[in-house]
Design brief:
Layout: H1 8-15, E1 31-37, H2 42-58, E2 70-86, E3 101-116, E4 123-124, E5 130-137, H3 147-173
Parallel strand pairs: 1-2
Antiparallel strand pairs: 2-3, 3-4, 3-5
Helix pairs in contact: 2-3
Length: 188
């Protein structure tokens, strides 16, 4: 390499690197607004918004207040599915009327988000429906199912799923690749 061309390698190396999918400016700060929530659990909705704000703050893209440009969030659905259905026994207690009980419950939330740059402006960077889920086991530590402990575990799982969902929405908005769904109990 000649003395005149020594600067080419550092310039080319500096030009390489990851670029967001949507190519948005890193200096754009977004206000967070709940557009609507279709779930009955207000705590879950608040946790989705907290996850959104936390992830935006980590990226240096959070703006305070309700102005523009803004990220509008819709919390669409809460899902619950019984897992590991078991017949009644002395160890597990029995369900209502002596029927089978679930040994675990899969808890999930679905939300979507988009960016609006100005009042009345077009929707940009729509995430589509994004889902997060987790599995919570029934507590049989005292020999029978304790409904109070199950309710507490369910509530905790729903809050954690909601916060993770908010973070996943921000990853999609900022153009970072994410899975369309996640496995039970696995972080994205």
């Amino acid at each position: 390499m000649t003395d005149r061309g020594w600067w080419v390698v550092p310039v080319l190396a500096a030009a390489c690197g990851y670029h967001p999918l949507y190519g948005g400016e890193a200096s754009t700060r977004l206000h967070v607004v709940l557009l609507r929530s279709l779930v009955a659990d207000a705590v879950a909705t608040d946790e989705v918004l907290s996850g959104v704000r936390e992830a935006l703050a980590k990226e240096g893209a959070l703006a305070a207040g309700d102005g523009y440009p803004r990220l509008e969030v819709e919390v669409l659905r809460a899902d619950e599915v019984s897992e590991g259905i078991a017949a009644p026994s002395v160890a597990l207690g029995s369900g209502a009327g002596g029927g089978p009980r679930a040994r675990a419950t899969e808890v999930g939330l679905v939300a979507r988000a988009h960016v609006v740059l100005e009042p009345g402006g077009a929707l940009e960077r729509d995430t589509g429906d994004v889902r997060a889920m987790d599995l919570t086991a029934s507590d049989v530590s005292i020999g029978v199912l304790d409904p109070r402990a199950d309710a507490m575990h369910h509530s905790d799982a729903l809050r954690l799923v909601a916060r993770r969902l908010g973070e996943r929405l921000v990853l999609r908005i900022l153009g970072n690749p994410t899975a369309s769904d996640e496995g039970i109990g696995r972080d994205p």
